[in-house]
Amino acid sequence: MRILVLSDIHANLIALETVLRNAGEFDRIWCLGDVVGYGPEPNACIETLRRYDLVCIAGNHDWAVLDKLELEDFNADARRAVLWTREQLNVQNLDWLHALPDSFRTEDFTLVHGSPRAPLWEYVLTSGIARINFEYLDTSLCLIGHTHIPIIYRYDNDTQNVTAEPLPEEIPVPLQGERMMINPGSVGQPRDGDPRAAFALLDLDTLTLTHYRIEYNVPATQLKMGQANLPLRLITRLSYGW
Ligand code: ZN
Question: How far is the CA of 8 from the centre of ligand 1 (A)?
Fold first, then answer.
């Protein structure tokens, strides 16, 4: 079983389609939230995902669009994008967003957008935050999104220390026997200084995860954002992956 792991698509259909075209064979998608918000094509992104065998959990932007989270906690540009997205979404897609769970668990994996402790909100940005969150984790492995930065947090059972390491590109990471929290990075709005779309392929037979980056047509997404009158800062940041 091969699972395509996606996170933080943020209504960037061109990035999503580029990933889907180039990911190779997979049986299922696990999506770690923030399907919408920021980008210009929220309906099409939801409808594209729904064509697949899919597990999708909610992100903070998905909930903000539904008014399930306080908009005051968003910065002005993000808030404007949330309000714009709310007007665009059709009833079926709003219903679909409403039905998304805040987490998902298998025997080995927990899927959350933010963190095990606060699935919708907390940013796991440091080893210290990761270490606290391992205490809230019932499975050995956890897949997270939200920061838009690909990373591995590895828990050492002997020292009880957590180390952070970059997620290597195109090198399978063995997961067997490990306690890890892994962020595959963002499809639609990378924030690690690399504008390429990020994703991962999880092989459940070999229990390995492989991270990939792929170039997509950034100017084409930016053009659509401009036509939708979305905030300029959100448009330009895609060029820099920040
Ligand atoms: Zn996000």
Answer: 5
Q: Report the separation in Å between the CA atom of 34 and the middle of ligand 1, taken as the mean of its atom positions.
A: 5
Each of the 242 residues of the chain gets a pLDDT tens digit; together they read 999 999 999 999 999 999 999 999 999 999 999 999 999 999 999 999 999 999 999 999 999 999 998 888 899 999 999 999 999 999 999 999 999 999 999 999 999 999 999 999 999 999 999 999 999 999 999 999 999 999 999 999 999 999 999 999 999 999 999 999 999 999 999 999 999 999 999 999 999 999 999 999 999 999 999 999 999 999 999 999 99
Using the mean position of ligand 1's atoms as its centre, give its distance from the Cα of residue 60 in Å.
Answer: 7
Instruction: Tell me the CA–centroid distance for residue 154 and ligand 1, in Å.
Output: 22
What stretches of the chain adopt beta strand conformation (E)? 2-6, 28-31, 54-56, 104-105, 109-111, 141-143, 151-155, 162-165, 173-174, 179-183, 197-203, 208-214
